[in-house]
Amino acid sequence: MDEQITGGTGIAGVAGLEMQQIAKNFGGVRALRGVTLVAPAGEVHSICGENGAGKSTLMKILAGAIPDYEGRILLNGQPVRFSGPRDAEDAGIRIIYQELNLVPQLTVADNIFLGREPRRGGKLGWLDGRTMEQRTRQLFDRLGAPISPRARVGDLRIGDQQMVEIAKALAFDARILIMDEPTSALSDSEVARLFRVIEDLRKAGATILYISHKMNEVFRLSDRVTVLRDGQFVATATRAETTPEQVVRWMVGREIAAMNYRPHPIGERPILEVEHLSLPRPTHSGLPTLKDISFTAHAGEVIGIAGLLGAGRTELLESIYGATTTAPRGTIRLEGKPVRFRHPDEAIRAGVAMVTEDRKSLGLFGQMSVAENITLRRLPELTYGKIPLVNPRAEREAVERSIQELSIKTDGGRAPVLSLSGGNQQKCIIARWLLVEPKLLLLDEPTRGIDVGAKSEIYQLIRRLAGQGRAILMTSSELPELLAVADRILVLCEGRLTAIIPRAEATEEAIMHAATRFLDKGTEPSPRAAAG
């Protein structure tokens, strides 16, 4: 019989969960050390910890992705042990991974029902494509996301792909739903819709295990919070029994420096001048074009770029970097000289570097080591003169210097880059670009999926790099982040620049007002928006 979508009307066989003394080794590394977690049915239970604390490993064990572990799992008091993900799914456990687990070449409907496709005439019958599309539409109606079931997943922007992952987890009866950073690529409106779905599931008796580094989400959603650190259980408390500050202290074992903006001298010399920048057609992502954007970035200045998802933040950076599929119109000057980059390689040679939002697909080389990821753009300069062989000593010195300067936590340059936490992976990418000594650094959501401790370190690094005379453009969907780091904030709405706000005048309310300026009115920006 075909499996049915719950539709938010009920959860079959609600479960209470107990994970007792769970332990797991990877080689000689102890990833989990006797962790116990109890989550009753009908509860949202947040699991917090820095990257590398063991949260994802614990959830992969529950989801059947890691079948070899010590300890035991009980559902409704009955011991279970899953041999694989399908086994866990059959028991009503679904997981939304932080790293997207989709097939880009397939349609949205195909991805959602992959391996569990409804068929006409029994298991060996024809795929029932009409039913798949109908159920997919029901899911996205429930999520309030206008995504076509027939769209190819690879053509969707990151935020829509995240919604497909969420719909995939909701598609069948779920007694326990694991969400690993589910909002990392979602807009505020999409997050609000997801929270409503979570509340529906809780009322229907589902157990929600929620992993997030965002304390505002944790304390908005959770009934209880469990904290892990270095693979060990630290504490469990109800929301009323603790505070965000206490949870952060449990997570990191130390006080985190407050995210307070600290001004530093900004030079009068313009590094980047943008005048009347526009994109004549939508880019490959399908987001709005850019329309008549003008601003200037000076030496030592951090400019934050705010706006709702789809406002054109990434397109602005890509237009400067030469990474759009259509050529932008307008004028771009780098240190006073007009430039028009046709490819990122031209931008890099001119002294422009970009850290992309999608760290996994566009930033890291997962099969390479830490050293190889850091030195990739400088290999020609680390060879024996004209001989095309890498000089190990020169490479080692460059890597050691980068690891020390950026405080990258690693066992050494030869460690696999994927063995590092998300924050340290991001530092490796930044280190790669710093070796080419850029004048202009473009950062697209540089702290996405990074824990609070690593975020604080990234903020300090950004301010330090600006203090060395670089100009930095940084997008972020987290307004407190921009308020902590940026000297000025550009606000975009539907591809247009609606405000340039000095840090002294910037508030979350002022930014959100400018970010939603055209959504209902269709008015034109004020003259101040073009000032720079």
Would you write up a description of this structure?
The longest helix is centred in the middle third of the chain and has 16 residues, at 188-203. The relative contact order is 0.11. The protein contains 17 helices and 24 strands. It has 532 residues and is of the alpha/beta class. The strands form six sheets. A six-stranded mixed β-sheet has the order 6-9-10-3-11-12, with helices on both faces. The protein has three domains: 17-102 and 173-252, Rossmann fold (3-Layer(aba) Sandwich); 256-351 and 438-532, P-loop containing nucleotide triphosphate hydrolases (Rossmann fold, 3-Layer(aba) Sandwich); 366-436, no CATH class. Strand 21 (440-444), helix 15 and strand 22 (471-475) form a beta-alpha-beta unit.
Shape descriptor: globular
Uncertain residue ranges: 1-14, 283-288, 520-532
Our estimate of the beta-strand percent is 15-25%
How is the CATH topology of the largest domain named? Rossmann fold
Q: Would you tell me the overall average pLDDT? A: 82
From the helix content, strand content and strand pairing, which structural class follows?
alpha/beta
Number of continuous helical runs: 17
- Please compute the radius of gyration using only Cα atoms: 24 Å
Helix content: 25-40%
CATH architecture of the largest domain: 3-Layer(aba) Sandwich
- Strand adjacency order, main sheet: 6-9-10-3-11-12
For the terminal residues, how far apart are their CA atoms? 63 Å
Q: Just give the CATH class of the largest domain.
A: Alpha Beta
Q: What is the CATH H-level superfamily of the largest domain? A: P-loop containing nucleotide triphosphate hydrolases
Multimeric organization = single chain
Major beta sheet summary: 6 strands, mixed
Number of domains: 3
